[in-house]
């Protein structure tokens, strides 16, 4: 059994994941994204999506890792290491998608960000309504795997957005 201070240390994996992700992300922005801006300071929105493509793979990995390593027979550090991958995926997805939305709809940016926030908040408000029952009935392993399978279904979204944008630009 862990005390309150030890339970708080479980978030160190997320912190380390973000700390490890920030330098290469900013290097990528500086080296590859910044030179693609035009003289008006505009960038094609799909140029923001490659990091989302990378980040989309980390979410299922962390959910399966966490779900199947969070058991008494496995050392406690394993699910914390899995949570670091969650931080990597979340950081890359959030930064890419929010920048994509702002670049894709500059005239309506406030409305787009408000709609994005409404959807995220709705899911955040709805998840606790079923999460406790799901984890209690399925267990940590299968409940996390269920979320992992759902996240696998969403992996193609940045790839499809990228291809669709490139198609419409070429037409």
Please write out the topology:
Elements: H1 4-8, H2 12-33, H3 50-69, H4 77-104, H5 109-154, H6 156-170
Helix pairs in contact: 2-4, 3-4, 3-5, 3-6, 4-5
Summarize the structure in words.
The longest helix has 46 residues, at 109-154. The protein is globular and about 60 Å long. It has helices at residues 4-8, 12-33, 50-69, 77-104, 109-154, 156-170. Helix content is 80%, strand content 0%. Helix 3 (50-69) crosses helix 5. It is an all-alpha fold and 171 residues long. It is built from 6 helices and no strands.
Short précis:
The protein has 171 residues and is mostly helical. It is built from six helices and no strands. It has helices spanning 4-8, 12-33, 50-69, 77-104, 109-154, 156-170.
Instruction: Please work out how many helical segments DSSP would assign.
Output: 6
Strand content: under 5%
The helix/strand series, from N terminus to C terminus, equals: HHHHHH
Q: Average pLDDT across residues?
A: 93
Biggest sheet overview: none
Q: What general form does the structure show? A: globular
Taking Cα atoms only, what radius of gyration do you get, to the nearest Å?
A: 18 Å
Q: Low-confidence parts lasting 5 or more residues at pLDDT below 50?
A: none
**How many β strands by DSSP?**
0
User: What would you call the structural class?
Assistant: mainly alpha
Q: How helical, in percent, are the residues?
A: over 70%
Q: Give the terminus-to-terminus CA distance.
A: 61 Å
List keywords for this structure.
171 residues; mainly alpha; 6 helices; 0% strand; globular
